[in-house]
Amino acid sequence: MKYEIIDHTADVCIRVYGKSIEELFKNAATAMMELITDTGKVDTSQTVEIKAEGETLEELLVHWLEEILYIHQVKKMVFKDFEIINLSKNQIVGKALGENIDPDKHDLHHDIKAVTYHNLRIENLNDKLKVDIVFDI
Amino acid sequence: MQEDIKLIKIHDYLWEIPKKGGMRVPGRIYASEKMLKVIKEDKSLEQVINVAHLPGIQKYSIAMPDIHWGYGFPIGGIAAMDIDEGVISPGGVGYDINCGVRLMRTNLTEEEVRPKLRELVAELFNRVPSGVGASGKIKLSRNDYKEIIEKGARWAIERGWGEPEDLERIEDHGTFPGGDPDAISARAFERGSDEIGTLGSGNHFLEVDVVEQIYNPTIADAFGLFKGQVCVLIHCGSRGFGHQICSDYIDKMLSYMRREGINLPDKQLACAHIKSKEGRDYLAAFAAAVNYAWTNRQIIMASAREAFYKVFGIGPKDLGGELVYDVSHNIAKFEEHKVNGQIKKLCVHRKGATRAFPKGHPLVPEVYRDVGQPVLIPGDMGRASFVLVGTEAALEETFGSSCHGAGRVLSRSKAIKSGRDRDLFKELEERGIIVMAKGKKTVLEEMPEAYKDAEEVCDIVHNAGIAKKVAKLRPIGVVKG
User: Fold this and answer.
1) Which residue of B has its CA nearest to A67?
2) Chain B residues with beta carbon closer than 8 angstroms to that of A120
3) Sheet with A77-87, edge to edge strand ranges
4) DSSP string for B133-145
5) B460 CB burial (10 A radius; 0-12, 13-18, 19+)
6) ipTM
7) Do residues A13 and B43 lie in contact, with contact meaning Cβ atoms separated by under 8 Å?
């Protein structure tokens, strides 16, 4: 399982899994986009480079997602797939594959105001990594 | 579940969490025994405890009966900080800086509006952009921003969106001082540039309501409300501009906390001392977003007036579309309050809480100084919303604060699941409520059953004395994002 939706009264919480940090970051981005729109209807005709920095791995994860959210909201794009090119403790370089929002094709379900730090901890779970992320809706 | 949190009963509507561990003050929750059972089902009481850890917090970490699990602060929480020793927390205001509610009265009655209700709701829906990523007709230049940051709602009125009298009925006359464009990131400007005059999505709305019941005729009369009257209730905030400012400053404050060695139970409580550079910079950016939100609600109200003029073929005088009041419920305010018998200047965080000042208070607008400040409590789209008035008890006990809404009980996913086979638009229409929305899912998420009954919440604050019921509003038309 890449992720699941966890009950949260006011906002939306996702529990993301990954075999590696790279996979965790990729799955978190995919999960966030799937909250926003039906990614089955998104073509990967455009590629956008995503760069983020952070003082801790948790902050890096929040900034990575915020960067994608920013491009989605300001450049009016939706994404289906993500690639991680380089990920260190304080820096990430990746790619988002998607297209411009077409109101006739893409239904937007959620207006994610922000990615929060609420109880955000990347944890080891046997052979995989796990993180809960709460989005402000 | 939070069964293990110890609660001491103070009276039928007030409970205390005693100080323990790193808590600097006790927690206090305004709730009935019945409502407490619902509150215990999520993690909000744990959040009341976490807030009690913040440096400089005075008296209590307070929660209202509409409290529910947020991030960092609970939604429905109040924390007042000493301005010398205390901190300001962007999460304690919320991402939607100065999210709030405004109520506009009219001279029209339900009888007069009902025959053209569908047309009216459609007109409102067309004039006020809503939904995920909604863009407005107004594109803000850097100079517009500069003026909005300085003037707040007055900027909109100078451009014809509203009347100068409106300013008398907004907290702080619609202008929050100290905003500084240099404290704001390019991204925040970019995100907010086409969103002014738009509702957004989630729990934001524009409603056509009818005054169904008057509890206090003298005060209702002072607020310009009468039974059977049609009103408009608007709920929204500072859109992407405020969201980005909050995100930017949480990061700055996490760095500050590492540097200063401040440890808190939840990172989302990120804060900085009010007098630090980070604290002052946040307040300068925050003030700008507060002004943006007031401008936003001002423009939306002006659009609502235009919709009435068009649909009913009447002018401003016949409509009587006067602003009753505009309250902020995601805010931090510098106010004077009594602590241990002494008057102190404090920074009061209201995260999902409404100011509720009594009659005679100098910060209550002159027009209401003899009766007290209107407190506006929106409910869900199927039941009722309420108008209350601030009290002396609120000033004594809760830093002049009261509840802010119904408070969610069902998560969004549970609401969607339980409503999958229902046609809410039809159900509500059968009850005389016309709903128009950009997103069908939003309507399911916002179904009446997803919320506590606002009436129960208002009864608790009324019985506890921290606000008094004035009027009940019943929705007949709803515009959602």
Assistant:
1) B187
2) 267-268
3) A46-53, A91-100, A77-87
4) T---S----HHHH
5) buried
6) 0.93
7) no
CA B239, B240, B246, B249 torsion-angle sign: negative
Of A9, A110, A113, which is closest to B42 when you measure between CB atoms? Answer: A9
Secondary structure of B313-325 as H, E, C letters:
CCCHHHHCCCEEE
| Closest residue by Cα to residue B63 from B404, B459, B374, B470 | B404
pLDDT given at position B2: 59
Which residues, 6 or more positions from B88, have their beta carbon under 8 angstroms from its beta carbon?
A: B81, B271, B272, B273, B274, B279, B282, B283, B332, B347, B349
| Residues B280-333 pLDDT 10s | 999 999 999 999 999 999 999 999 999 999 999 999 999 999 999 999 999 999
Minimal CA–CA distance to B387: which of B473, B321, B301, B459?
A: B473
SS3 state of residue A59: helix
Contact between B70 and A10 using a beta-carbon 8 Å cutoff: yes
The rounded distance, in Å, linking the Cα atoms of B458 and B13 is: 12
Chain-centre distance for alpha carbon A82: 9
Q: Is B404 a catalytic residue?
A: yes
Contact A9 B411 (CB under 8 A): yes
Contact criterion met (CB below 8 Å) for B195 and B240: yes
Q: How far apart are CA A5 and CA B416, in angstroms?
A: 13
Whole-angstrom distance, CA of residue A51 vs CA of residue A66: 11
> Closest-CA residue in chain B for A65?
B247
- The reply to whether residue A117 touches residue B71, judged by beta carbons under 8 angstroms, is yes
Quick one: residue B200, left, alpha or beta (phi over 0 = left, psi -120 to 50 = alpha)? left
| pTM, 2 dp | 0.96
Q: pLDDT tens across B361-383, in order?
A: 999 999 999 999 999 999 999 99
- pLDDT of B4 reads 83
Which of B240, B251, B410 is the closest to A73 by Cβ? B240
Which residue positions in chain B have pLDDT lower than 50? none
The token duo for A83 is: 């690639």
Which residue is closest to B189 within chain A, CA to CA? A74
Measured in angstroms, the CA of A15 and the nearest CA of chain B are apart by 14
Averaged pLDDT for residues A112-122? 94
The per-residue b/e assignment along B316-344, b for 16 or more CB within 10 angstroms, e otherwise, is: eeebebbbbbbbbbbbbbebebeeeeeee
Cα of A112 to nearest chain B Cα, Å: 9
